[in-house]
Amino acid sequence: MIYLDSAATTMQKPPSVSRACVSAMRTMASPGRGGHRPAMLAARTAFACREEAAALFGVNEPENVVFTFNATHGLNIAIKSLVKRGDTVLISGYEHNAVTRPLHALGAVVKVAYGPLFQPEAMFRSFEEQLTPEVCAVVCNHVSNVFGYILPVERIAALCRARGVPFILDASQSAGCLPVDMSQLKAAFIAMPGHKGLYGPQGTGLLLCGTDTQPLLEGGTGSMSARQEMPDFLPDRLEAGTHNIPGIAGLLEGIRYVRREGPLKILERERRLMQTAAKGLSALPEITVYADPQGSAQAGVLSFQVGEMDCELVGEALGKCGIAVRAGLHCSPLAHRSAGTYEKGTVRSSFSSFNSRLEAERLVWEIGHLNRKNSR
Q: 279-312 pLDDT, tens per residue?
């Protein structure tokens, strides 16, 4: 299997990740639930993961690194800590349903900063115009999960700081391959999954907290057990219930891998593979490729369309050839509306540090073969 669906989850992990998960299941209990060795080993592992994440993402206190089930979980905490019914929230035109659905459920008034694909200056100008006094929060993804479009989040965050508006960053596609620095962005929250660019297991995520929080869940925390309110300190305030210690142990090893390799080195690999695929697909007849001509505003995600073929059928055909991609709307209908691809969707290939040039070239060959067969 050639796995080109890392924007959904990275399947190829550093070997240390699975070893750590298995070891944790065999040797660790729950942190904060006892002074015995299995509980203490779990507590040390969880704190080590917080420390590694804090060092990677510029968080001053490891306790401000909160474990979540995924980025969606973290975004729900962040949004519901800042936004109440009727509040006005500004988002980009490339947001995932993990942002738009919680806002819809809250009854927020949603303003959208639109801009063409791969034109960060136009996107920033749109945020400047739309960030009016009634806006109580801004939510923006760092990289579009559909197109790999890198949004100008550093400038957007600075704009929010200048206007005194809390900023939430969705780093689902950037954590692990782009610089994400809490100390520079000074975001209210940064949410990210563990199972994508951090190479951890599914069911893991991180929420970096820079402001007051409201719990999404209430329950046991292993601390302050005599009181019926959730603790007023992090991370306990947001971590009700039993931790996913095998997942956290694996995530710790994934973060260590990213720190050793360096996010920019990983980005360079992924971008090189994406550009190989983009160049090859662009040379084929009747293929529409969504790629940044300059290259600097795109990460390792590439969307394309094959003539008039249904994108889901293209994805299925590639799957039968042993190539895993994702097709359709990618849980991001707003992004497709912004790019003009809503009616057809796209086929998305997304690369990781563990893919090769030969795999990118094989994708091009199979699409060429499929295209020729379909045009007969």
A: 999 999 999 999 999 999 999 999 999 999 999 9
pTM beyond 0.85? yes
Q: Which domains does the chain have, with CATH numbers?
A: 2-9+262-375 (3.90.1150.10), 15-261 (3.40.640.10)
Q: Quick one: what percent of the chain has pLDDT higher than 70? A: 99
- SS3 readout for the chain: CEECECCCCCCCCCHHHHHHHHHHHHHCCCCCCCCCHHHHHHHHHHHHHHHHHHHHHCCCCHHHEEEECCHHHHHHHHHHHHCCCCCEEEEECCCCHHHHHHHHHHCCEEEEECCCCCCHHHHHHHHHHHCCCCEEEEEEECECCCCCEECCHHHHHHHHHHHCCCEEEECCCCECCECCCHHHHCCCEEEEECCCCCCCCCCCEEEEECCCCCCCCCCCCCCCCCCCCCCCCCCHHHCCCCCCHHHHHHHHHHHHHHHHHCHHHHHHHHHHHHHHHHHHHHCCCCEEEECCCCCCCECCEEEEEECCCCHHHHHHHHHHCCEECEEECCCCHHHHHHHCCCCCCEEEEECCCCCCHHHHHHHHHHHHHHHHHHHC
